[in-house]
Amino acid sequence: MSLPHAILTALLEQPSSGLELTRRFDRSIGFFWSATHQQIYRELGRLETTGLIRALPQAGPVRGQKKEYEVLPAGRAELARWTAAADDPRPVRDPLLLRLRAAAVVGTAGLDAELRRHLDLHRAQLAHYEAIGRRDFPAGEEGGADPLQYAVLRAGVGLESFWVRWLAETVESLPPALGPALGPASVERSAQGAAQGSAEVSANPS
Predict the structure, then answer these.
(1) What average pLDDT is seen over the chain?
(2) How far, in Å, CA of 195 to CA of 183, rounded?
(3) CB neighbours (10 Å) of residue 32?
(4) Cα–Cα distance, 6 to 13 (Å, whole number)
(5) Among 25, 84, 147, 182, which is most exposed with the fewest C-beta within 10 angstroms?
(6) Which of 103, 91, 106 is nearest to 171 (CA)?
(7) In 3D, which of 28, 44, 16 has the Cα closest to residue 146?
(8) Segment 1-35, tens digit of pLDDT
(9) Can you give the pTM of this predicted structure?
(10) In the Cβ-directed half-sphere of 34, how many Cα atoms lie within 13 Å?
(11) pLDDT class for 172, splitting at 50, 70, 90?
């Protein structure tokens, strides 16, 4: 997924200003493809320069009015081309998974609280998706306007359900904290102690 195609999708759904796009990203598209206000405005400029969108004509003085954009035929064609293109699955890159791998080496101190914090966040997001489903698709797929939009919502519900289940199981199986990780100074002192002990054994053989 790329930001320009996300913007083309949003503008085909409804012509919008940069500010309105930012709000729509916060409410919907941002759940699976986030972008800042500055990123959206920069991309709008590029899309306009390349002839994929245009600013709608404004009635009255331009000063102080929000510029709204719509998709041109070239933009629709580009979005259709991208929609039909092949794209391989992306590997998961989540810092929490790397943190667990690291904890297996340096100890689990502090990890329980972080896992529980993530669990609370995913539970809240799952509840939000379920509320959207009850509001926009009261009868499931048959209750909404577009089955593809419902499929996206089901993907969100499924992903959050996985994280909630996995985090709960991981918290339950977490071993006792092994203490803070050794810093460089502690490692050096431990190495020095081991070397001193070896020297003493060599000097005083049994």
Answers:
(1) 82
(2) 18
(3) 12
(4) 11
(5) 84
(6) 103
(7) 28
(8) 589 999 999 999 999 999 999 988 888 887 777 78
(9) 0.71
(10) 3
(11) very high
